[in-house]
C-alpha cells in the first residue's frame, strides 16, 4: 500500500501545539504560577506555625528555630515564601478586578499580568529591605 504525499504531510506535522511551537501567553503563565504559589503558601504557613509553637514552648526551641531561619537556606526559603505570598495576593487582586468585568481585554489582561509579576518582586524586595533596616536599627 503506497502512501500519498498528502497523507505523509499530515502525519509529519504536529497533532497538537507543543512547547516548540506554542508560546504560552503571560496570563496563562501567571494563572499557573498563582496556583503553584497557593500550594507553596501551605508549606510557608507551616513554617509560621512552627515558629509560633517554638515561641510558645521554650527559649531553647525558639532560639533553635530562629537559628534555622537565619541560615542562608532558611532565609532563601523565607524569601521565597514572601514572594509567594505577595504574588498570590496580587493574583487575587487581579482576579478581583476581573470579577468586576474590568481588564478582560487581551491587551489589558496581559498588562495586569505583567504588573502582578513586577509588583510581587518589588513588594518582596521592599519587605526584605525594610526588615533588614529594622533589624539593623534594633
Q: Could you describe the 3D structure shown?
A:
This protein has 138 residues and is mainly alpha-helical. Helix content is 81%, strand content 0%. The protein contains five helices and no strands. Helix 2 (26-57) packs antiparallel against helix 3 (59-70) and helix 2 (26-57) packs across helix 4. The mean pLDDT is 90.
Defining key terms:
single chain; 138 residues; mainly alpha; elongated
Q: What is this structure, in a nutshell?
A:
With 138 residues, the protein is an all-alpha fold. 81% of the residues lie in helices and 0% in strands. The longest helix is centred in the first third of the chain and has 32 residues, at 26-57.
Give the mean pLDDT.
90
Q: Classify the secondary structure makeup into a structural class.
A: mainly alpha
Spatial extent as radius of gyration: 23 Å
Strand residue percentage: under 5%
Q: What's the end-to-end separation, in Å?
A: 84 Å
Q: Uncertain runs with pLDDT below 50, 5 residues or more? A: none
Total helix count? Answer: 5
Q: SSE order in H/E notation?
A: HHHHH
Helix content: over 70%
* DSSP E strands, number: 0
C-alpha geometry: elongated
Main sheet? none
Subunit structure: Part of an enzyme complex containing four subunits: a flavoprotein, an iron-sulfur protein, plus two membrane-anchoring proteins, SdhC and SdhD. The complex can form homotrimers.
Keywords: Heme, Iron, Membrane, Metal-binding, Transmembrane, Transmembrane helix
Organism: Mesorhizobium salmacidum
Cofactor: heme
